[in-house]
Design brief:
The complex is a heterodimer.
Chain A: E1 4-5, E2 9-12, E3 18-24, E4 35-39, E5 46-49, E6 63-68, E7 73-78, E8 87-95, E9 98-101, E10 105-109
Parallel strand pairs in A: 2-10
Antiparallel strand pairs in A: 1-3, 3-7, 4-5, 4-8, 6-7, 8-9, 8-10
Chain B: E1 4-7, E2 10-13, E3 18-24, E4 32-39, E5 45-51, E6 58-60, E7 68-73, E8 78-83, E9 92-101, E10 110-111, E11 115-120
Parallel strand pairs in B: 2-11
Antiparallel strand pairs in B: 1-3, 3-8, 4-5, 4-9, 5-6, 7-8, 9-10, 9-11
Classes of the chains: A mainly beta, B mainly beta.
Chain lengths: 110, 121
């Protein structure tokens, strides 16, 4: 099985842009879609990005996703940070019949 | 609006069994792969198990293989997780999640609110 590695935490000021990375340990990042979920304390995860860069309806375009084959990683980019973006963010991908989540990144907006 | 509602959590002793249920009041349950994902207190998300739309294919995380069994009843729009030989490290909030129509793996577009399972030693 492969792993997805995320930074444990990131912090940035309101109005700025932050990037959260997700590196795949084996297998090509480009071969399997990556999803990103936001989870606020006490709540279930919700999707902010699916299939690498797609946004579900209702998710603001301040959220974007990309993949980089050279580093075998995916990124979640949040621009124009708001205090309400403070949450845990998880990347998720798969291979064959395994779903794998990254360890999660705590985003602090201060 | 898709809504998944889990039930069946509680406090149990180590070595015992518990069955979780998840009712889907939305659409396309019978055409979608379904998953269980858990989250230990203060920890990250861990995928637990998945079942194909037609019940024929089932896959498990190594941590629960041989102890947990996933099943579904499409006539009742209900997903189950039978958990046996429970251990304290199974303590977690258990979420059911719906995959996309026709897909076994990939995006989990809908999640329930979770049900807490606490295993005491």
């Amino acid at each position: 099985n492969f792993m997805l590695t995320q930074p444990h935490s990131v912090s940035e000021s309101p109005g700025k842009t932050v990037t959260i990375s997700c590196t795949r340990s084996s297998g090509s990042i480009a071969s399997y879609y990556v999803q990103w979920y936001q989870q606020r304390p006490g709540s279930a995860p919700t999707t902010v990005i699916y299939e690498d860069h797609q946004r579900p309806s209702g998710v603001p375009d301040r959220f974007s996703g990309s993949i980089d084959s050279s580093s075998n990683s995916a990124s979640l980019i949040i621009s124009g940070l708001k205090t309400e973006d403070e949450a845990d963010y998880y990347c998720q991908s798969y291979d064959s019949f395994n779903q794998v989540f990254g360890g999660g990144t705590k985003l602090t907006v201060l | 609006q898709v809504q998944l509602v889990e039930s069946g959590g509680g406090v149990v002793q180590s070595g015992t069994s518990l069955r979780l249920s998840c009712v889907d009041s939305g659409f396309s349950f019978s055409n979608s792969g379904m998953h269980w994902v858990r989250q230990a207190p203060g920890k990250g998300l861990e995928w637990v198990a998945l079942i194909s739309y037609d019940t024929y294919d089932k896959y498990y995380a190594d941590s629960v293989k041989g102890r947990f069994s996933i099943s579904r009843d499409n006539s009742k729009n209900t997903l189950y997780l039978q958990m046996s030989s429970l251990r304290p490290d199974d303590t977690a909030v258990y979420y059911c999640a719906k995959g996309q129509v026709g897909a076994m793996v990939g995006w989990l577009g809908s999640w329930g609110q979770g049900t807490l399972v606490t295993v005491s030693s």
